[in-house]
Amino acid sequence: MNFLEERIMKDGVVKPGNVLKVDSFLNHQMDISLMEEIGKEFKRRFADKNITKVMTIEASGIGIAAFAAKEFGVPMVFAKKSKSINIAGDVYVAEVESFTHQNKNQVVVSKQFLGPDDHLLIIDDFLANGCALLGLISIADAAGATVEGLGIVIEKGFQFGGRVIRNLGYQLESLAIVDAMDPETGSITFREQADSVR
Ligand code: G4P
Question: 43, 169, 174, 186: most buried, per Cβ within 10 A?
Fold first, then answer.
């Protein structure tokens, strides 16, 4: 098991409905030493890429993306969730549907902060059905930016997002892939990954 899988086993809680609660260390209270380690691991996995910017989506992606951006020495930009239907022309927009929360958000990034010269690493905390990542990819495409790769902390391998993104040809690196979990016993099964740091 890698450092993240160990932490999930220790502090993650499996809830009914295939939800993994990790809010004691990842997406509510944050363990900053763990964030640093996660940032370094993303740097290691995308070391051969010439990343100019890290991009994520609010809210939970921001802290993680910040640590990744520090490792690459580049800025981080996050897509903002916007309820407004009158979105001005100075932003890139994508619609992101959340199956977990059963709602839709328009997400926006200012055209000031994304352009054709950008080589992006896209980061998020969870990958389930992939709607958030597909929204971020469409914003990158609209800006003419290059998506060099995508980094996820926890992928839910039994949902289809990971397959969709990998089938599109992107390098997708998930630090932990949960293939199964059982709310009754609390057991979590991780996918074996060849190149994971111990
Ligand atoms: P998708 O983007 O991959 O399609 O995922 P989905 O719509 O299913 O997930 C919607 C939100 O729920 C996302 O946060 C995602 O991070 C979160 N999520 C999905 N599965 C789990 C889970 O098992 N455990 C936890 N803790 N979160 C999960 P979001 O709507 O963007 O909210 P936030 O970033 O503002 O927190």
Answer: 174
Name every protein residue with a CB atom under 6 angstroms from any ligand 1 atom: 19-22, 27, 57, 59-60, 98-101, 125-132, 156, 161
Counting from 1 in the atom list of ligand 1, the atom nearest the Cα of 18 is 23
CA of 158 to the centre of ligand 1 (A): 14
DSSP-derived letter for residue 191 is P
Helix axes 3-11, 32-45, angle to 10 degrees: 150
Mean pLDDT by 10-residue block, N- to C-terminus, for the chain (198 residues)?
97 96 98 98 98 97 98 98 76 88 90 98 98 98 98 98 98 98 96 73
Residue 125 CA, ligand 1 centroid: distance in Å: 8
- At residue 167, φ and ψ (nearest 5 deg) are -65, -25
**Cα 117 from Cα 167, distance rounded (Å):** 25
Q: Which domains does the chain have, with CATH numbers?
A: 3-180 (3.40.50.2020)
- In 3D space, the residue among 101, 150, 154, 105 whose CA is nearest the CA of residue 127 turns out to be 154
Residue 126 tokens read as: 């969870």
**pLDDT in the model for residue 196:** 57
